[in-house]
């Protein structure tokens, strides 16, 4: 069956075709929800974050210029919504100092092949110990498979900072997983080879 491109669906949605917008939402809602769940580690908050993102994107759909993929724009909006979530949660704290302690986690759908389903779930739990900036970089590089250039653009940082945040975050994850007797060997080999996501 022929699948309409994002650009076609966006053009149709802007002309008032509701089914085109619904198709866009269905295409990305699972990935966006899983992203939100990894960021906030709470199902209700993740659902709210996903819905807020889609509402914001719909309201601003006419501003999408199409010079970069729609998916990147969608997740950039989600990124800002995530930062707003943490600012509301701890308005007097540094964004890097916000602890993530809630554990309302359900298993992720296997989006990556480096870990088994159980290990993926453990990785998500371990990610909650990371500062939000490192968590975002790990999310974008490992789960979304963004390039360092994409990450830098989305987060408004340099590529060197993106790399530094990634490797600092991964080192912390390694320690956290090793503490729980979870193998990090295969993942660490890929890190050393620079094969996490796409360089």
TrEMBL record:
Pfam families in alphabetical order: Sigma70_r2, Sigma70_r4_2
One of the record's GO molecular function terms: DNA binding
UniProt keyword Disulfide bond, yes or no: no
Domain RNA polymerase sigma factor 70 region 4 type, chain residue ranges per copy: 122-173
UniProt keywords, alphabetically: DNA-binding, Sigma factor, Transcription, Transcription regulation
Single Gene Ontology BP annotation: DNA-templated transcription initiation
Domain RNA polymerase sigma-70 region span(s) in chain numbering: 24-90
Residues passing through the membrane, by range: none
Gene3D superfamilies in the cross-refs: 1.10.1740.10, Winged helix-like DNA-binding domain superfamily/Winged helix DNA-binding domain
Taxonomy, superkingdom: Bacteria
Family to which this protein belongs: Belongs to the sigma-70 factor family. ECF subfamily.
Name of the featured protein: Sigma-70 family RNA polymerase sigma factor
Organism classification: Bacteria, Pseudomonadati, Pseudomonadota, Gammaproteobacteria, Alteromonadales
